[in-house]
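step=encode ok
step=design start
structure_in=
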């Protein structure tokens, strides 16, 4: 077992800290999951006395041979890092907390989703899950302790959206998106070395990590082609056929690759919202790579290349905003849910819809525009007319500096209002 519990570098407080602290104080075991290299282990180490790295063969041997015996007698709280390498350890945790349900015994981290939803999953009723995504701009700026963006909007409505003193311009937002939410490139690397790190991350994802999950059943080159097709269509509703034809795959293979990327937490589906008040809505999900920098790296795009392509630019800004809000929702105890809205034939489309408390919704449009006008809110006005009082607020996030009203319940605000 590792005894190097000290944190080598200055710790950047994360949105997940509050949830982990609260849950671990009342429950015997907490599971922290999310994409590899998003800071799960760094955060979890701050809460424990014993740190077990199951991805180190020497430490994993005993847990493979007899996980109950290996777990017994460790000084608690215990961190079991990368549980998916030795999945038998979860059965031992289940038996341990069944015998002794004292709070704060185990913290478990992992980077694979697949087994979490399986019928044989031993954590049901024993492990409460917290999902950590990449570092947000609010975390980057050290604002973790302020009220979250989603809770702020829920409580204060339009008044929660304040224009910052010195917001980025369009180029600045693209640079933020391409800086990445992975702590290593975001906090420690410069613009020249970040693309190298991202390339290495994607290579490991499509080879070693995929091999670990699928036991050798995937062709890395074909998986790479599918990943690039998803990157090109990130932040969009796209037909399955479009993706697998672009990658040169058959449908069965493409479906398997998509599930693999979801299991590795790098591809998220934004489900379609449904309501008995609205008819003829498209049921297809909106696909997002969890970090727009992943898409840019897969497509070999830098800031100038993104700015020269209007379609890619819109996807990068949309993906960046969604990444900020996804991280807030994933760690919020209010458990807001995220969706998109698209009517049949695309007549009406809303980038992001958030279900708040009491079934109220906040609808968001994202525009790569410094001063969007009334036309930018036309889909929000349509939704407001359809939903009535259920429509709490419409927001047009833009890349300009000002906040202004577009209608009584619709406001235009800089993207930076999320962390201002």
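sequence_out=
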């Amino acid at each position: 077992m590792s005894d190097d519990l000290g944190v080598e570098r200055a710790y950047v407080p994360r949105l997940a800290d509050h949830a982990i602290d609260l849950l671990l104080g009342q429950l015997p075991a907490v599971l922290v999951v999310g994409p590899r290299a998003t800071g799960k282990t760094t955060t979890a180490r701050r809460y424990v006395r014993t740190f077990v790295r199951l991805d180190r063969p020497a430490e994993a041997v005993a847990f493979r041979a007899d996980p109950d015996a290996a777990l017994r007698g460790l000084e608690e709280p215990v961190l079991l890092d990368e549980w998916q390498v030795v999945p038998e350890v979860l059965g031992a945790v289940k038996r341990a907390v069944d015998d002794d349900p004292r709070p704060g015994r185990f913290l478990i981290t992992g980077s694979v989703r697949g087994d979490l939803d399986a019928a044989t999953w031993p954590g049901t009723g024993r492990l409460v899950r917290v999902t950590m995504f990449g570092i947000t701009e609010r975390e980057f700026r050290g604002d973790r302790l302020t009220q979250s963006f989603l809770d702020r909007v829920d409580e204060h409505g339009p008044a929660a959206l304040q224009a910052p003193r010195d917001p980025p311009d369009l180029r600045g937002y693209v640079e933020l998106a391409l800086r990445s939410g992975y702590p290593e490139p975001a906090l420690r690397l410069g613009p020249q070395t970040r693309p190298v790190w991202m390339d290495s991350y994607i290579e490991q994802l499509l080879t070693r990590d995929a091999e670990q999950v699928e036991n050798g059943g995937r062709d890395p080159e074909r998986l790479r082609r599918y990943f690039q097709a998803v990157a090109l269509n990130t932040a969009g509703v796209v037909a399955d056929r479009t993706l697998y034809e672009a990658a040169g795959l058959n449908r069965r293979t493409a479906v398997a690759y998509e599930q693999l990327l979801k299991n590795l937490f790098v591809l998220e589906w934004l489900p379609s919202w449904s309501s008995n008040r609205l008819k003829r809505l498209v049921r297809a999900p909106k696909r997002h790579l969890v970090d727009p920098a992943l898409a840019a790296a897969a497509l070999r795009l830098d800031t100038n290349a993104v700015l020269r392509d209007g379609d890619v630019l819109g996807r990068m800004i949309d993906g960046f905003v969604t990444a900020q809000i996804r991280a807030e929702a994933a760690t919020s105890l209010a458990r807001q849910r995220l969706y998109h809205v698209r009517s049949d034939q695309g007549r009406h489309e809303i980038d992001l819809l958030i279900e708040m408390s009491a079934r109220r919704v906040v609808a968001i449009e994202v525009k790569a525009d410094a001063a969007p006008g009334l036309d930018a809110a036309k889909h929000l006005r349509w939704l407001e007319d359809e939903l009535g009082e259920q429509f709490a607020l419409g927001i047009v996030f833009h890349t300009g500096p000002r906040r202004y009203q577009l209608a009584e319940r619709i406001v235009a605000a800089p993207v930076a209002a999320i962390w201002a």
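step=design ok
step=annotate ok -> The mean pLDDT is 92.
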